Amino acid sequence: MSTTALKITLNDKALRAILAKLPDNLNERARKKGARKALAPFVKKLAGIWKSSPYRGKPTHRKAIAAATQLDVRRMGAGPTAPIRSRIGIRYGTKGGATAKGRQRVYHLLELGYRHYGKGSKFYASTPAHLVQQREGRREFVKLKRNEIFRANPGNSMAAKRARSAALFGMYGEARAMFPELHDHTSGKRQAMKGAGAAKMIPGAFRSLRWAQSNLQRATDALGAETLAEAKRLLGGRP
Length: 239
Description:
Layout: H1 13-20, H2 24-51, H3 60-67, E1 69-75, E2 84-90, H4 107-112, E3 113-116, H5 129-152, H6 158-178, H7 180-194, E4 200-203, H8 207-234
Antiparallel strand pairs: 1-2, 3-4
């Protein structure tokens, strides 16, 4: 299950003209710094929405979601004049921050909703202790191999991406062969889910989606204004 991504493209003639006057390295700096300055307030607003969202029980996971709400600004492609992509969202895994502690992983369930199969369902059965150890071993194996694959195939070129994809496919196959009992257990849980028949659908809140839809134009305007201001500053105030 994946969340909806709303995309905007900033294509302003006056801004392009100003950026064209900058050297390539300053061009990239202006666009990145402008994006960070423009979108940082929106990150705080989205985090605040989840932190104060009305759910029953302790706000542990909502606080984790708020803590893992991040802005990612990076160049897409080779060369300093390549397009800059800025993304606001909830980052899963350890990069979500020490404060979140991985608890943000329920975000997609709260945002999109989920199917509940009932208390007695095999799908919710606890993982046996010896398989928990295997799961940790598999996790370490995947982490080590992923790092090796990305170091061996750096860059954003299509050739590098294809090489990484092929290597990762083989690595996950190797992990299945190394931990067959764990694979059978997780596969069995998936089959139990599919064979459970009708289940209660818990609706999602779609808080992030609704917030993003209402802030698209404001984010676009802020992005253009801050990038233009940063470009002019690097030009020494010259138009």
